[in-house]
Amino acid sequence: MTEAPAAAACPACGATHDPADAFCEACGSPIGGAVDPPADPPTRSPADPADATADPTGPMPRPTGEAAACRACGGALEDGYCTECGVKAPSPRDHWSEEPAPWLAGVCDRGIAHPRNEDAMALAATADASRGVMVVCDGVTTAPDSDRAALAASRAACQVLAAAPAVEGSGEAAAIRHWDGVLRQAAQAANAEAVGAAHILGDPPEPPSCTFVAAVVTPGLVHVGWCGDSRAYWLPDEGEGEQLTVDHSLGTEMVRSGMSQADAEVDPRFHTITRWLGADSVDATPEIAARRLDTSGYVAVVSDGLWNYASSPAALRAAMDRAAEHVGSTASPATLAAHLVEFANAQGGHDNITAALARVSPH
Amino acid sequence: MADFTAEVFQNEYLAQGTTDAHAVVSISCAGAGTAGQGGTAAAEIVIVDTSGSMDMPVAKINAARRAASVAVEEILDGTWFAVLSGHSIAQMVYPPNPGMVRMSAGTRADALAAIGQLRSGGATAIGAWVAAATELFGQVPGSPQCHAILLTDGRIEGEAASVLPNALRKARGKFQCDCRGIGADWDVEELRGIADALLGSVDIVAEPADLEADFAEMMRTAMSRGVADARLRVWAPQGSDVLFVRQVAPSVEDLTPKATSISPLIREYPTGAWSDESRDYHIAVRVPVADPGQERLAARVEVVVNDQVLAKGLVRALWSTDVEKTTRIDPAVAHYTGQAQLAAAIRDGLAAKAAGDERTATVLLGQAAKLAHESGNENTTRLLTKVVDVVDADAGTVRLKRDVAKADEMALDTRSTKTTRIRREPQP
């Protein structure tokens, strides 16, 4: 459209849009007064993770080296499609990865069956592994624009957790108390963003909403807070893994009232969540837990698009180990997270998929 | 500069393993202005059959004189023009010497006087007329927007069979030509071939008295075409096959064989000159299959004028396992698929009837009656009922009429490509 004044390009993904649009139809990035996409790689500054999420509603990070080429055949892109094979270039909102430090990374993906990626993640990490932050929010599919709510919420929470001061005093009890408070603040900030998204949309009857799970990985301890059914796992290299979160869902209630896990998981009500963030949330208070990290392993933070295919810690660890076998034992968290997403897509990709991993090494 | 818009109607969802993407691209032009403005000159030639048969009855040559006169009156000042008398050769009526002149009050008066002197006599050498028009248009300086009206009352006579095809080869892309047959002694296929090659219309004027209004209307339309030449540029992905590009409204015209290859993935299709109007195109592309959840651009359709892209529509293919999504047929695609089938059924049905195969003709014209009825194409239904008795429109049962007027059959034949527009409902 050489002359057409009606079209402008999305600063995040390059798709053309009507200038009157507030958001890009292709990737969901905000357009009004939009800035150029960040020229820097998406890696957040290891020295100061607080800078990373300065703009919680800013455009999606654009993975370096993928800017203008087709992922299927390498052809040039136009209108968001390859000029050779026609394959749609995934919008940055549909698939992106973050690796704030070599020991902590994640991938967020649209999956196959859903037309939009309503999952969101925000990560931050220091290079010396003194603090790693992984936040995952899963937009509730029945509410429109939940993808925006999820993205804004995860970024806001990540910012709070990354910017929080270090623990004063010593001892596990002090650390747990400290992070308990910060995780509550983070959930509050995330909830405020989700509620704010509803206000921006003119308070629709079905406001956007999302789940919330955050993990703060520190030497020797992981602290988690959550609302809903996105999960955190501890997956040690030796010994049994552990699910650190307990889903706020009817599934959990069913198991609590005596139904077997296997029976509950095939019940259609299993995924109905009982706690979430957003304007129509009944209870946006996060549940908080902490666990000692006394051996090497991974802390995984994932959405149900992944754990649907590997619910138990053993199954999830097995899926990771198969990937590690495939790419070699020195696989980075970034590679492993990408493989977990591929694994879920290979199973059908019925939901959006997010996998974030932090490598924990013994002292 | 005119404003073009392109709107795509399709069901982008393809079932797993399927490959064919169909879309109707509706293209509208606004602010076209008039022919001959904006740096491009316009040129018009009126070709009037003056063969011997035009005197039988004499009402024909009289009507032709009046029609040529009103056409000349509609030509805007400044337009290059000429009037030709067609018989065994193409003879200059105005200007007297081979060439074209610009329209003014003076040249108009002289042309009208010359048209009044038209006399009939001789053969029908339509190929020679087309060749003469091509040569005249070639003498206008610059790259003018050229249009002709060709009137005949008979089929080619006294000319070798190869002359017309050769003439059309040279004329193609040089000018557009609207063809009219007066009476019922001309050949529909012959005129349709010329109109098709030269991006014009073809129609029957059974009654000489109707010719005047028709010529005035044709010339007014030609003068309102301020966009000299628009092309459809269609990109389709590697490994794909453009099954067809078909204009489906206001009439069915297959553009597929008219493609020019621009690059391995890009073809251009001529659409001629545009006024303020809208036309619909049905495009079908066979694309390489992809996995469920994957999306591929099946075609990028652009309106190109003077090498500038003025509008663009994207035809998408999105594979899905959701049967509810993939089994829906877009209403516009369904409607125009039916209209193209309707036109084909009439054409083939009449051909079978002419060949004496009444059984096939009855079946095909029955299908046509059903399709016309279902789609609310009342004009076609009316034309059909002059050729067949419709026993049951819903079932497509008809009986061939006895003693059909030849002109009625020819009217059905020439107008069978006219389509009804689909009623536009808001997209879901």
Brief rundown of the structure:
Chain A has 363 residues and is α+β, with helices and mostly antiparallel strands. Chain A is built from 7 helices and 17 strands. The N terminus of chain A is likely disordered.
Protein structure class of chain A = alpha+beta
Terminal CA distance of chain B: 33 Å
Number of helical stretches of at least 4 residues of chain B: 11
Order of helices and strands of chain A: EEEEEEEEHHEEEEEHHEEEHHHE
Low-confidence stretches of chain A: 1-7, 19-24, 27-66
Instruction: Give the domain tally of chain B.
Output: 3
Main-sheet strand order of chain A equals 5-6-17-16-12-13
Helix content of chain B: 25-40%
CATH superfamily of the largest domain in chain A: PPM-type phosphatase domain
Description:
The complex is a heterodimer of chains A (363) and B (428). By secondary structure, chain A is an alpha+beta fold. Chain A folds into 2 domains: 1-91, no CATH class; 93-360, 4-Layer Sandwich (Phosphatase 2c, domain 1). Chain A contains 7 helices and 17 strands. In chain A, a hairpin with a 2-residue loop joins strand 5 and strand 6. The radius of gyration of chain A is 20 Å and the shape is globular. Chain A starts with 7 loop residues before the first strand and ends with a strand. The relative contact order of chain A is 0.13. Helices cover 32% and strands 31% of the residues of chain B. In chain B, the strands form 4 sheets. In chain B, strands 4, 5, 6, 7, 8, 9 and 10 form a 7-stranded mixed sheet that branches. In chain B, strands 2-18-17-11-15-14 form a 6-stranded mixed sheet. Classes of the chains: A alpha+beta (363), B alpha+beta (428). Chain A binds chain B through residues 1-4, 73, 78-79, 81-88, 111-113, 349, and chain B through 1, 235-240, 265, 287-288, 290-298, 300, 308-312, 314, 316-317, 321-322.
Which tags fit this structure?
heterodimer; A: 363 residues; alpha+beta; Phosphatase 2c, domain 1; 6-stranded antiparallel sheet; 5-stranded antiparallel sheet; 7 helices; 17 strands; B: 428 residues; Immunoglobulin-like; Rossmann fold; Four Helix Bundle (Hemerythrin (Met), subunit A); 3 domains; 6-stranded mixed sheet
